[in-house]
């Protein structure tokens, strides 16, 4: 779809679910239309100028080419398409007008997202939590559109201002959503960084590797978009973290996505209370209050936790899993999570947290302290990863 149509459609769709700032939305839409009108005017004026020039030079075919372009443009209103036909001068003109329009649209989106940010803060203070959540989700939609624009039409880096973070930048103390993948991160004060709310999913991974397939187990699909990505090793996870940092770099204020160190993983599995297992201290876990392991629902031939049923025979959609006290879902179970040796994130430490395939025979495997220190390069049906966002 054409970028501008898409922008307008996304804005309109996101706007439907939303009531708290219709005034802001109306003003945004008006400004957006004004930019389009001005771009249209600029383009037509440019075509008039070109036609005059060609007529004065006595070039009939060129004059006709400009007239054709004007006719086409007045019919479908798309400047970008005009760049592909007619005189090279028309193409140049189209590029200039598009650059003008993009610059203003990006500035407008930045201003809009900044207003939404203040609105979220105000609504939160006023204890209008539902409205604040709706506004936050709107803000994420705008950031997503912005990221899309800036990927297609890269602008030179603005000069950093140390006094105030750039608009739409990840801010300590506030949860974060990756603009390009919608991956969610929770601000964890104790670690002074953000931790992935969920394990990285197939859908998120396919933003980078469109053909990735996490397969199935005994005819149960493990390849749905919201199930965790499988068949990725430590290097694959590293490459994904670097790729995502690059994609979102304008919004990260110098932070980067990386793999957690083992120490960090233990900290967010134990949630500051030294618990033995990710769900607490008791064995066995209680159904509905722990992650996805091999419980009664399991279909594999190996042992099960007979008193436990999490409802998922294979990997579970990450957002369907129990959240620990720090708001992180599926830290124990579902997939072994790749961890680094230290916070540089670059050297393999171990796989942590056990998986959907682990059950009764050895409860130690399910402890917070359990680790698989071998097999950094293994890709299989129970290993994946979770990212953190950190300034280290
Ligand atoms: Ca299970």
Structural write-up:
The chain has helices at residues 3-16, 22-56, 60-76, 79-82, 88-125, 129-152, 202-206, 234-248, 262-270; strands at 176-177, 184-188, 193-196, 216-217, 220-221, 256-258, 336-340, 348-352, 371-372, 383-384, 388-390. Helix 5 runs antiparallel to helix 6 (129-152). It contains 9 helices and 11 strands. The strands form 3 sheets. It has a 5-stranded antiparallel beta sheet with strand order 1-2-3-11-6. It folds into 2 domains: 3-152, no CATH class; 176-390, paralog of FGE (formylglycine-generating enzyme) (Alpha-Beta Complex), CATH 3.90.1580. Calcium ion (CA) binds at residues 292-295, 297-298, 310, 312, 356.
The appropriate CATH architecture of the largest domain is Alpha-Beta Complex
Beta-strand percent range: 5-15%
Strand order in the sheet with the most strands: 1-2-3-11-6
Global mean pLDDT: 87
Continuous helix count: 9
Number of individual domains = 2
Report the strand count: 11
Helix coverage percent of residues? 40-55%
- What is the H-and-E element order? HHHHHHEEEHEEHEHEEEEE
- The CATH superfamily label of the largest domain reads paralog of FGE (formylglycine-generating enzyme)
Instruction: Output the CATH topology of the largest domain.
Output: paralog of FGE (formylglycine-generating enzyme)
Describe the largest sheet. Answer: 5 strands, antiparallel
Structural class: alpha+beta
Small molecules held by this entry: calcium ion
């Amino acid at each position: 779809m054409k970028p501008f149509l898409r922008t307008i459609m996304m804005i309109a769709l996101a706007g439907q679910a939303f009531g708290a700032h219709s005034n802001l939305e109306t003003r945004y839409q008006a400004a957006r239309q004004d930019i389009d009108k001005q771009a249209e005017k600029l383009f037509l004026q440019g075509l008039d100028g070109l036609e005059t020039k060609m007529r004065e030079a006595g070039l009939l075919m060129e004059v006709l080419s400009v007239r054709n372009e004007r006719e086409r443009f007045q019919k479908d209103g798309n400047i970008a398409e005009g760049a592909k036909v007619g005189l090279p001068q028309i193409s140049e003109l189209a590029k200039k007008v598009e650059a003008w329009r993009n610059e203003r649209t990006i500035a407008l989106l930045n201003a809009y997202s900044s207003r939404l940010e203040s609105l979220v803060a105000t609504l939160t203070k006023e204890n209008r939590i539902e409205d604040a959540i709706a506004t936050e989700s709107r803000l994420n939609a705008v950031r997503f559109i912005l990221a899309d624009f800036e990927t297609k039409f890269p602008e030179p880096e603005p000069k950093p201002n140390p006094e105030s973070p750039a608009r739409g930048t990840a801010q300590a103390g506030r949860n974060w959503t990756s603009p390009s993948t919608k991956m969610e991160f929770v601000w964890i004060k104790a670690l002074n960084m953000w931790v992935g709310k969920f394990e990285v999913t197939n859908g998120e991974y396919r933003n980078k590797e469109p053909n990735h397939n996490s397969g199935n187990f005994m005819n149960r699909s493990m390849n749905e978009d919201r199930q965790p990505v499988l068949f990725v090793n430590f290097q694959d996870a590293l490459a994904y973290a670097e790729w995502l940092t690059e994609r979102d770099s304008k919004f990260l204020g110098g932070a980067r996505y990386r793999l957690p160190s083992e120490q960090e993983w233990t900290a967010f599995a134990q949630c500051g209370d030294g618990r033995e297992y990710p769900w607490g201290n008791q064995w066995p876990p209680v159904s509905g209050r722990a992650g996805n392991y091999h419980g009664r629902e399991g279909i594999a031939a190996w042992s099960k936790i007979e008193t436990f049923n999490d409802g998922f025979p294979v990997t579970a959609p990450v957002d369907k899993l129990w959240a620990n006290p720090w708001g992180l879902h599926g830290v124990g179970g579902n997939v072994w999570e790749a961890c680094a040796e230290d916070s540089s994130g670059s050297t393999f430490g171990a796989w942590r947290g056990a998986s959907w395939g682990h059950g009764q025979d050895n409860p130690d495997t399910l402890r917070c302290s359990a680790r698989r220190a071998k097999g950094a390069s293994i890709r299989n049906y129970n290993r994946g990863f979770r990212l953190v966002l950190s300034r280290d």
